[in-house]
Amino acid sequence: MKSTFALSKVVSRSVSHSTLLFMGLIFLTPFIWMVLVVLKSPDQIFSNPFGLPTGLKSVKDNIHTAFTAVPMTRFLMNGALVVSILLILQLTVAIPAAYALAKFEFTGRRMFMMAVVAGLCIPIQIPMLPVYIGLAYSGMLDSYFSLIFPFIISPFAIFMLRQQIKSFPDEIIQAARLDGLSESGIILWLILPEVRPVIAAFSVFSVTAHWNDLYWPLITVSSQTMATPPLGMLYFRDGDMGTNYGALMAGAIITVLPVMFLFLIAQRNFVKGISVSGHK
Amino acid sequence: MRIINNTRFSVRPHPGPRGLILAAPAIFLLGCLLIAPVIIVLSMSLTDYNLGSINFTFIGLNNYKQLLDDPHATHALLNTFIYILIVVPAAFITGLFLAVRIQAVFHLRRFYEIIFFLPATSTFVSMALVWQYLLHGRIGPVNELIVQLGFQRIDFLTDPAYALPTLAVIGAWQLTGQTTVLFLAGLASLPDEIYQAASLDGVESGIDRFCKITFPMLGPTSLFVLVTTTVTAFQVFDSVAALTKGGPGGATETLLYRIYLEAYQFTNMGYACALSVVFLCLIAALSVLQIVTAEKKVHY
Amino acid sequence: MVSYMSCSSARGLILKDVRKSFGAHDVLEEMSLEVHAGEFLCLLGPSGCGKSTLLKIIAGFDNPTTGEISTDSGEDLLHLSSAKRDIAMVFQNFALYSHMTVRDNIAMPLIMRRLTWQQRLPFIGRLLPGARLCYATIMQEVNDIAGMLKIAHLLDRKPSQLSGGQKQRVAIGRALIRKPSLFLMDEPLSSLDAALRNEMRNEIAELHRSLGITTLYVTHDQTEAMTMADRIVILMNGKVLQAGTPEEIFNSPSHLDVAKFIGSPPVNVLPAKAVRHGIYVMDQHIPLPLSGEIMGGIQLAIRPEDIRFTLSEPMTPLRLTWPVRILRVERTGHEALVHVATMQGSRLTGRLSSDSLKKFIAPKSGLISMSFDVGSIWLFKESGERIYHNFLLRDVAIQGPRSSLP
Asked: N or C, where is chain A less crowded by C-beta within 10 Å?
């Protein structure tokens, strides 16, 4: 037998859902519009902003333009190369450091830890200045090295990994040492499997942040061939075809898709990363 | 050889240089890429160094004095504060509202999380260009809508009065995903039993539940969200660089954009460092607050 | 101070055919129950038996799939919201408002009920006419209750600054200040340590004696149930197995599971066979006036304290004797547990205390005689239901009242 106040619960639930769906629609408007525009031809865009697209022919043209007006494939490749190499290097540096901080005693450990925490508080744009000068003087600007190098050290990774490794039982490590396992062996076979969730969360975070980064590529890159996707989009917009909104939207979709895809499959890790760090 | 002062075989920490060797690359890079640069920035802010110049002199606090007199710099600071004053409350309140609503309809939570967090993860530059089209003065759909409702067209991004608030709205759109997710995590940690006890005590209506239970118990989370969102908002750059380039007439120049201009366009490195030091102090103070409030997130 | 709190409006509860299922799985199966006004009723059962679910349904946090719940005056509860059912509850994890002081926690139910929303506003509410008097009255009642529960000195503290026992008292204060007609308690002592549990048990029992509020107490701890309850309801797998006073449940379990649940160490269970004119157990035939409908496999249960050991003893129709081998003797000062094995391989535990313990000497061979009165055995069908027979009743008349409760 249903009580009347259970009925009011159903009513309030549907009100919540309608509010949420309505607001969701507003939030997704740019995405919806992006797709609508890419399906239209240039005159359709200019003459009738609210009109619906008529066919799929314009899509092909727009995508084609996106790839020819600027070296879009090159942008995408640069982005992929930079984020993947960067991630591997970040983890290679951070995991042993986190392991050392969690399980070892050495001189300067406390100072190192403080430096890591300080690193969490210092916005990355500050050290960029001298690093830029250094790269400028050594002629290394506008290269993959300049795109990757400043970010190899990630205090965030070290911090998150250290938290996780700390809870790993010491006895297992000690037993492994007695069995003759080297430290790198311990890291590979014991620590690594244990910190897989942290690595997953961090990877998602790092890949997204660096794929989406505009500031540093804008500063260090001066030739189109070295641009990452965000910078590439700016070149696109400022170039000849910049007013071809259909193609521009095609470019936007192409650059956004990889990260969106990553988000959809690794959504839980995104949420976890945000809850810990709080910044993108 | 270190003397281990427990009687039983000490399992940790392991003495010897092994820890140092493992951490060496990180220590080196941290010094190179973080600590040394910060020290350089601090000292360079006391000079008149320009990129490419051979000589530079130590000029003490002149850069900072110049900062105070420089209308560009003070204007940039003001713009940044106005931006934050719009973005942070908007993202905070919207995020809180959405999180409470989503929590109330628990089973579709994943779905809504995705919808509202999507803007936060997408390449902001690309989305900014979408906004540029949406808000276009001539062909943008938003203006079409406004005209059809009977009002005048608004040049969102080229009208000095509208430019900064427009960027703020776009910023809030992006940041709301972050605040929603953080509030959802906070709400999930509130035990069900408190609400059950409250319903027996007579707390029935949604407003009562929110004012008496939910919001007070979200106190620590709210603080964390506030600080985190402010830190992110402070670092606004992408929308300025992509949409307005600081214009029209400096109306949307924010602190970070000003630093970018001084350092990399006008190559006034010394001055840019002074600006950066101001930026650093503000953010570092907030970040420390962020870490402190992160610890306190659990109420009991 | 105590008398003003006495509840003259104690109310009973009637549950009829209440069933709760989640999908295909029945958590509560068609249970009917009556709670008498003013009594202390214990819902006793192992974890997962559905007792907390039942409490949630009574409190209004969940709805039954089918069934009716009403007060003993006929008022239907199910269409009322939790706040209107005049029920108060104490939770296992206290559920105190951690952002409020103890005083505000206890005052909360009265503030929500007696003040309008305007009067409840943060600062200006108190300035409204009538509000100040109301607040003063409420605070006085809070002070009274805090004094009664001995937490008056904690009124300005926050829950995080309290110990477990203190938190529980605050929770009880918050519940009682409303003078509810029904008081629910969901395993309130299980998060406290053992010494505190004893103390709180006495206090809760004392509170009930002086206030007389109908109380429904959920627990998995049989000691709590046996010492505090007027009546106990044994709940297992969503079914009511038995409802009765502690004596009834201890001395005459109606189901094998009830017998196994109550009593420490647990009751001994032996397989037996019902035959003509009696039963067959451990290779011996015992004449018993069974009704004859039951034939075949049954279960026999005997309490450890009803087992006696002697060096040798002849068997009589009243006293049954078996030769057994001692496996292990655990002495705990004032009593001992004797673990034996029969010739058929069954294992039993007997409990010896005071005089029988003094007379007990374990022989070197390890072989002794185990005996128990035929009147102290319980017989159960394979399905678990109790088989009653006249012998037991007659035996009670011969033997006298049962031994004391654990």
From this structure: N
